[in-house]
Structures
1.
Amino acid sequence: MTAGDRFLIDGLQYCNWSEKIFRELRAGGITAIHVTICYHENFRETIANIAQWNRWFQDFPDLICPARTADDVRRAKREGRTAVIFGFQNPAPIEDDLSLVEIWHQLGVRFMQLSYNNQSLLATGCYEAEDPGITRMGREVIREMNRVGLVIDMSHSAERSTLEAIELSSRPIAITHANPSSWHDVPRNKSDTVLKALAGSGGMLGFSLYPLHLKGGSGCTIRSFCEMAASTAELMGVRHLGIGSDLCQDQPDSVVEWMRVGRWTRDTRGAAGPLGAAVFPPQPDWFRNNTQFAGIADGLAEVGFSASEIDGIMGGNWLDFFERSFGAAGQEQPAQNPAARRAASKGV
């Protein structure tokens, strides 16, 4: 596969969307992005976010298009557009109603985190002092998400909750935007125990480029990042890896406060954990916007990845995951029960 044929897929972005950014996506050759349409919004507010995306699809049809399947992503690539996949970073839009899981899937949502930093009705976030694991409702929601084809995302969840979600889910889950804590030890990054379990169940990890998740922060070098990817490949197997940049381009600093505290507290300084000032840190100079996305492939090559492995990490692995994950139960590829998935992943 040549560089021009390669699928470039970003497993998570939350930019301040504009024509400028849509044109940068096309200039960078980005095939698809998973975009956050909920942090703390309720059902009605999230519907309004979808309405805004529908207006953008109407205003910029030559640049972006909605995607609900892997075939939609392939079509976008053929047509020279960027496919947009919706996801939630918080289960707030399902409120306390199990039936809303299927409705959100019908509306085009394909990823949902079971918790965002805090305890939710479903699972525990990574900044809670105690992690009692998946709740009773969480077990029911996991079963329903598996049934309809809504991917479980545990990027902001605590360790026990994440491990239980992997075990309880009959389909592979994702951690769309995080890095190994063995490389950079912050609560949002994931332990080797979690990463091994994720790979053993057929799941996906998207490497984050958000500076707080990077060793060296904004000064992290592309060499360090790609060396981390290489060591993670040894731990998990290359086919379980992708990019989930967590790019928040052009967002005002007020959005950081919204992410961290939402409406659950008035404490805008200390409630969100030891994250420092509520400002966006500068991106590394080698990934400031989507025009630089493809350059990551060069760094991966320099640390020893083969061309086919790079194709996978840059997007092919996400595309395969979409193929297996976005349809209703029974439409996925074979070997989806936990024991068979673990057996299939050995030796990768």
2.
Amino acid sequence: MNRAIFLVGPMGAGKSTIGKLLAAELQLPFTDSDRVLEERTGADIPWIFDVEGEEGFRRRETDVLRDLCRGPVQVVATGGGIVLAEENRRQLRKHGLVVYLQASLDQLLERTSKNSNRPLLQVPDPRARIEELLRERDPLYREVADIICDTDYCTPRQAALRVAARLTSSVSPAD
């Protein structure tokens, strides 16, 4: 691999978990853009949302992505909303291979239900919120994706191996 690999997709698709396994499989460093953002600010994401709102968080997210694009070849798990900004979509396409990790609504709901560290899901109806986010973001994930991998009904290891096989055999069009 001579380009960064960016994992995009909704919260709960497995970007961080699969990303760590994929990086190990490809013998590359792993970075989670949300963790970098938290380390830089000294605050967790819910606090940033509370104090600066989503707009402030998105600005910081863009700054982190810009720096990661200048960094070494690595596997990068991005935040679920990274694709919202056109600048971010351009950066992802220009500086790496983009893997869209997708999952069904039911899987996403199940995987996120026990995590209170997701500000966008702190609503009375998380299922409706996830549906809304998917409607808005799925076309953007597809727009930037070089590879699409469905993470339903497979272990994170199986998903990482599928992605690694696709990456090492040559990047084929998103399916």
3.
Amino acid sequence: MIVDFSGPGGWSHALTRLGVRDVGLEWDEWACKTRAAAGQLTIRTDVALYPVWPFLGRTTGLIASPPCQAWSMAGKRLGLVDQPLVHQAVADLAEGRDTRERLLTACRDQRSLLAAEPMRYLHAPNTAGKPEWVAMEEVPDVLPLWRQYAVILRRWGFSAWSGIVSAADFGVPQTRRRAILIASRTRTTQPPAPTHAKFAEPATLFGPGRMQWVSVAEALGWGATDRPVPTVCAGGGPGGGAEPFPSGSRKALADARDRGTWKSHPRSAEQERSTHAPVASPSAARWAWSLRSNNQAHAAVRGLDEPAGTLFFGHRANECLWVVSPVDGQEYADGPAPEPIRITAAEAGRLQTFPADYPWQGNKGQQFSQIGNAVPPRLAAHLLAPHLGRTLGPDDFILAA
């Protein structure tokens, strides 16, 4: 049995593609409904309250992506303030002492202590009661905690690795950086081998080549003819309210895509030969579409021929927007620039490498919250494959699936 602190199904979808199933533990109502619609096994529960005895000696793998809101750059980051308390909880649980109730009263954000919950599921009176392997994911600031887990797991006979990876290096069209812990008591654990790079790399005597990072345009099928793309706004803001941007703006985005008038960044001839992404055709238009990761001053803005920045949602400042800017400092050739448009849930899901028809449940706000908090299935597949005796290449777990 594989047990998963689950969310809406990023890890679970990866496991399904790899030919196995998991049992998800999830509290959020809409994440549970999404998992049910996707055919995934789920126990709706608070992982901090659910008993661990049903899993002792029966768990092959433990997967954990504790809620990131307490640690994320998108929030107040009170998890950093609470970090010493979380470290203490992990150390105590590893010794069989449950001090969570006392430590919780001192936490500035009660969600912080959820990062210690995996240790409660890992601790067992003997080796036979422990899972064979572990995979955990969180925002980069949680890496010191994962390193603490790794030290404890090595003491228990596991091989363990912890570090930071970029999802773009594994074919995810998003430069999403995450702290990863992988451990096993049946095999030597190694860092996951990237399959993609900013620029394509040929194979050498020392190893296989790497494909170029997957772009936003490629992931969404823009410039291709075999994948449908939404062309109109469905209406409704993140919380289910009115759509704040003119419906004609998305039509302008679709028309620009269909005419090939969105502008890509200049590339050298060598880069053009090496890329597997579609190349936009020339146009007289003097503006280019980009994706802005949120509407704050420091937001990442990426062209359509690049991976997106990290997608995160949760409140109005975290909306991801399609925006335009002049090309080469020129004025707009086709009149006023189109208004910004909010990314759709379907588009956001694709940029997380979920299938285009993944059955997100709830209103827009509930869907976006699930998508932003999910583990990209393609990244999850590369982290899980070695535990399941699989080797994934750059073309495996294709985006079109």
4.
Amino acid sequence: MTALLDIDKLLDELEANLRRQLSERGIERPALVGIRTGGVWLADLLSKRLGLDEPYGELDISFYRDDFSRIGLNPKVQPSHLPFETEGRDVILIDDVIMSGRTIRAAMNEIFDYGRPASIMLATLIDLGARELPIQPDVVGRVLTLQAHQRVKLKGPDPLSVELRETEQPG
């Protein structure tokens, strides 16, 4: 069984929370960086919603993952692209779903290879809250608690949708 979550409502919540954080921190010129693939789709939408004129960056963190030797090379690895200097910038790192925190750790390692940002703010559409590392998002569209037999998947980019899937339960 698959259910669709209201993507427009999730995006509205994420945008409102992000605007509030930017205002509270006095950040006027953030550098958006999306993690492939869902984070890039969200970075594109948020860049437009926030009216930013600078292009957003794209990270493919495949080579930075701590489980790279176990999972092997993803055949769709693409080069990362940051069309701006990260040194001294306020970076907003964007991902679709945060669970363990390992993807975010890998993304931060890659960002620091480009330069030392003034700050990194983490924005995620959905927080599943099952951390293995002490990494928390600064901005969230929605916190979800899933059962062991449930999975969430962002599909897109056009149209963008979020599916909540029920998997087979053993028994």
